[in-house]
## 1
Amino acid sequence: MSTTLSHQTSNTVDEAALLTAATTLADRFAPLADDFDRNRKLDQDASDAMAEAGFYRLFEPTHLGGLEASPVISAKVFERLAQGNAACGWVAFIAATSGSTLASIPEESARQIFAHPNVMVAGVFAPSGKAHVEENGVTVNGRWQWGSGTQNADWVLGGCMVDDGSEQPTQHMVLMPASAISFLDTWHVSGLQGTGSTDYQVTDLQGSLGHIVGYKKNRPPKRPLYQFPQFTLLAIGIGAVALGIGRAAIDELVNLAQSKKRINSKATLADRVHSHLEVARAEATLRSARAFYYQSIEAAWNTAISGEKVSVDQRRDIRLATTHAVEASIKTVDAMYTLGGGAAVYRDSPLQRHFRDVHMASQHIMVAPSTLETVGRLYLGQEAQIATL
């Protein structure tokens, strides 16, 4: 069965086709997890398959050949991918989110970048670089951390402070061809090893002014998807991956429990009362968090498609639901890992990978404990920094 999704010419996206493609690829990528971890990045074939399935175009504008899909549909795709392979789910949401920025560059530049439909963009929002605007373009210098998927990408984003002679530099992302990037061997980590989230840098890279995201009058079209703040889309992806890992952990434990026995016991893990209680609690924990997660996204999306701006209260709720989804997924995975006993600690056990991956995902700043502080302040009617909500 082909996993390629044809271009959409409107906001009508075939959710069933996307989820079928995600399930097909999740099943295909699941046995490759050890290889991706060992290589500390995705195989290019795997990345290309996700590009062909349309996953990297989920947030790209329809007038450029993108799908401009709703965050609800996209989250389900990332979640489904992560059930099979967390690194693939992670890279897919990073690429999709990065692709959304191309709605904020000149159309001529965007069409050059999208010379073929399966172009992949990935990168880092943090302004760790400097860009100096000159008469005929821009010169970029910088080094960025956490470059998930960048080694598989065609174009790489780097957050920069842009100096164009104005009173104060302004913060923008700059698009750079992957062929001009120096990738550094820094990605030696405990979890999500296959995401290839290594450092990268450029020195005196000459670029086009048209590759500065949101520069001057370049703004995204006033359509529903682009009413979602960039950081909201980023957080949604993290929650989706965590939920996918949580589901994978429960499924793996249930499978293991059918045959695992204690020494000198005929009873399987599935026969034990303690297992019944732990699996029931895990299902309740994960499903309730998932329901809150999707309910908050759907509420904001309904506002966006009605032509109204997503409210601060809705952004607050999404961030709370996303952070809660990650915490609930950790609780679920930890319980399944513990219940798996000695069998869970071996490298060939998916449970140990789920344990490492979900804890790694929780370290992202978008779902850090400080998010709960911001959300709590808003619920209590106090002033709060909402720029990154």
## 2
Amino acid sequence: MNRVLNFSAGPSMLPLEVLEEAQRDLVDYKGCGSSVMEMSHRSKYFAPIIADAEASLRRIMNISDDYHVLFLQGGASLQFSMIPMNLAKRGEKAAYVVTGQFAGKALDEGARWCDAVCLANGKENGFTAIPRINAADVPQDARFLHITVNNTIYGTMWSELPETGSVPLVGDLSSVALGREYDINRFGLAYMGAQKNMGIAGLTVVIIRKELVTGELDEVVPSMLRYDLMAKNGSMYNTPPAFAIYMAGLMFNWVEAQGGVAEMERRNKEKAALLYSVLDESSMFAPRAEKDSRSITNVTFTLPTPELTADFVRMAEGRGMINVKGHRLTGGCRASIYNGKYETESSGGITYDTIRDYAEQGVDFISVGALTHSVKGLDMSFKACE
């Protein structure tokens, strides 16, 4: 089977092992005679699926019992409304930092409910850098400070989380959760759409400190948008996205088996460093984000002209690399290098006599010969095949 390399910002590429396990369970889950997509969320078969998914996520993200873990329907953008409705009363202050389109949407939705204050906006510099924020910048009467930790469109990332004083930090971790280690205790609330590094579309995970789930909300907040009701009912106040939760559980187990989030971060940093090094040295490609703000999961870059960009996208597709076209707001190109695919290469000092030894170690590519290192822009590699 020849699988393409999918560089989409989401839904993203999943590990083949995860897809194959889901394939085995699709028609008959663990011998129960029913598909995962058919079973009731109240059944004895689904109960361990959601419980195991939560337990696995708590392990790999080091989530303590001080937090609820909620598996909710819809995309992460729904949280732009749910967060202010649950954490602030009407007219109370909330702080935001705008580092891209989704951060801006969060601010707009917050302004519908509360006194939404924008502490910094990166629009003037084209969202190429993350602004500096410290506790002195954060109004201490704000109910929360919202940041978008990684920006898929512009390829930027908070390398260090801001200090907020006594104000709870709220973070959209959609495109970097499980791809980089974070101390979850730094957050009052963290949320993430699953279709980046956690599985498939239709599920959003919310991790919220229990002390913030008070239930003392404005009476107009719809029941379906209340964290307290979701927490009291084990994320099953209504029918949850059962299959998406099942897929997320498979991804959590896969990450754990690979060595956990620390190993995912190591791999992602390695992939990103390799790609950025090529972009920085190139006279054709130019990275969009400033160096100290670069994402390790979404690498954005440009070419000199739209025509060359279109040629590059076509060339990539012809070589089995899809969805490298940049977002419509930015143009250019984008490579989203999430956890789902990781290729390894061996090079340096490899000869005809030793090439088999390297191939047997399970690497994907082997670079051989003086030409690889002596002629700029010329590479000689072999695909390792079974």
## 3
Amino acid sequence: MTLPPAIAAQPSTSRGRLHAEPDSGPRGPRDAFQRDRDRIVHSVAFRRLRHKTQVFVAPDGDHYRVRLTHSIEVAQIGRTIARALGLNEDLTEALCLAHDLGHPPFGHAGEDALDDALRTKGGFDHNGHTLRLLTRLETPYAEFDGLNLSWETLEGLAKHNGPVAQPKWALAEVDRELGLELGAWPSLEAQVAALADDIAYDNHDIDDGLRAGILPLGALLEQPFVARHWEAIERRWPDLPLDRKVKALVRDQIGTMAGDLLAETRRRVAEAGAETLEDVRSAGRPLAGFSGGLADEERGLKRFLHANLYNAPPLQPVRAEAQRVVTNLADAYLANPRLLPDAWHRGDDDLSTARNVADYVAGMTDPFAIKRHEALVGPVSLPEKF
């Protein structure tokens, strides 16, 4: 069952782009949200995600997720949910593909280090940097900076995790220019994109953690949500090899989460009497989400993954070295801004320099950050295997 048609974002009623553009021409008959998605896919920032950490730095083998493959998997889940609910698939896909563009090298470890290095100049957060990339730093067009995405796409990226009460400088700067209504809830497309992200990394990080031999299967099976699915797989295929049981586990858990999300979102929309997109924005609470029981289990699974995967002892030296690399690079460029490439000399006051350093370091891939550290500071010691 789909939701009321007027609840979906419509490109025909978009609030438009900062810089007016014709919607026709030699690039084909696409609507505003389709153009947004395609601009994201063709961006330099999107290509860089291929060499940015998801969980593992310098992973042992080619089969672990990176930011790029994670974003594609999030888009698949988000697009499927949007279709089932009758939401705008193109806007949902655009939000899913772009949600991690602002991550610096080495994932959250790198983000923490860059935020700390710039704490006296406003800090750093990857979500604000995503907006900065899309509105300023990507420059494929002659007429303007940024990708000139539609208001709905930028609003959804700014608030996909909900209203933002105290935005950091990068997001606040974009909000002043575009009026993103940070205090209101975003579209259902944005809410679905955020939940698709949760579904993807909850399950795919299990897959990668087990493959790496870091996540203990026995402890994982103590999680009620996982145990329930594993027992069902054992009943169906008792003799299935372990690696195929893990694949079945990941697939089934994704299906359960998506199905629960569909049912609960329909229930919330009906309960709220929401009929239009503006009803969603003014609801005062998220209308997309998991049911109470699954939400509790999902939070428990996240706590388990933080304790047993993201903060696992084998990964701590890797995290510390990644943070050292980012900290040293930021410090080196702040101390001597002339080390920055010429294109990154924009303004000569201390605040402008800090912004330039943040933009440049955040744009680095993991391998490039290692190379620059080796050139400017010294050797980097990251393991080739875990």
